[in-house]
Amino acid sequence: MMKRWKRGWSAIGRLMIALMLFALPMMITGVGLAEADTGSERIHHSKFINVAHRGASGYAPENTIAAFDKAVEMKADYFELDVQRSKDGQLVLIHDTTVDRTTNGTGAVKDLTLKELKSLDAGSWFDEKYAGEKIPTLGETLDRYRGKIKILIELKSPSLYPGIEQQVAEELAKRNLDKRGDKVIVQSFDHESVKRFHQIMPSVPVGVLASYGSYRDTGITDKHLRSFAQYADFVNPNKDLVDRDLVKRVHRHGMKILPYTVRDESAANALFDAGVDGLITDFPELAYTHPHK
Fold first, then answer.
1. pLDDT tens-digit map of 88-125
2. Which position among 44, 53, 191, 251 bears the catalytic label?
3. Domain 48-289 falls in which CATH fold?
4. What is the DSSP letter of 127?
5. pLDDT tens, 13-66?
6. What range(s) does the GP-PDE domain occupy (predicted)?
7. Catalytic residue among 44, 95, 224, 251
8. Which neighbouring-strand residues pair with 184?
9. Residue 95 annotated among the catalytic residues of the structure
10. Which residues contact 225 (CB under 8 A, 6 or more apart)?
11. Which of 111, 189, 282, 287 is most buried by its number of CB atoms within 10 A?
């Protein structure tokens, strides 16, 4: 009887030791089985993404070399830029579809040649010390900053420029920026354009922009997110659409969220609390107060 009891206790002891060894890694890392479903959220926040909107456009004229240089100086992870096309087929960086607001010229971007666009002053409107800043091309910008900072490319009003997705893809491929990774992201408010780019160059991550006006009444629903998740890596909404619930649902659909455009500390803090993956901001220093940055 005593021998059988000892054998039984020995078996129980071995089982208890095995269970303790199984549980030990979880005890050390502080991760319990009940927390397993939240692990993806911790992974999302392991690296906060700081995107300088049109360059560090709070400090220098948007979409210019001065603004992009400032973004590098401020150690942003990415700068964002807007790409359109000149009358003679060159890819140029400017936000508005006309040059009126940000240069000393007038007229539609698509109706001006590269030479005409390059003759304009793209800096004085912001501050006289930036007089003489030029409208850059996409190619010269990629050449200047490749390896120094990552770039978020917005296809601006692509319906005005048929085939611009292919043209941007070719510029990236020329510079070996078509490899899988996160050196470049391409985004647009035109989701069909994003789909076209993704089909042309599936190795480059893409994002869908969501304006407040388009989603003010319905919000960004799970139906929208299921559709975006078919092709997109990022959902980048107006900051006023973002709350903790949206962030969780974006993550649940396997995407990240980078709200725009953040211009003050209170907005940044609210987005930090909501759990976003990064900020698109005119003032890159706003991201540095994030606890994971």
1. 999 999 999 999 999 999 999 999 999 999 999 999 99
2. 53
3. TIM Barrel (3.20.20)
4. -
5. 554 544 444 444 444 333 332 333 333 333 334 589 999 999 999 999 999 999
6. 48-291
7. 95
8. 151
9. yes
10. 235, 249, 250, 253, 255
11. 287
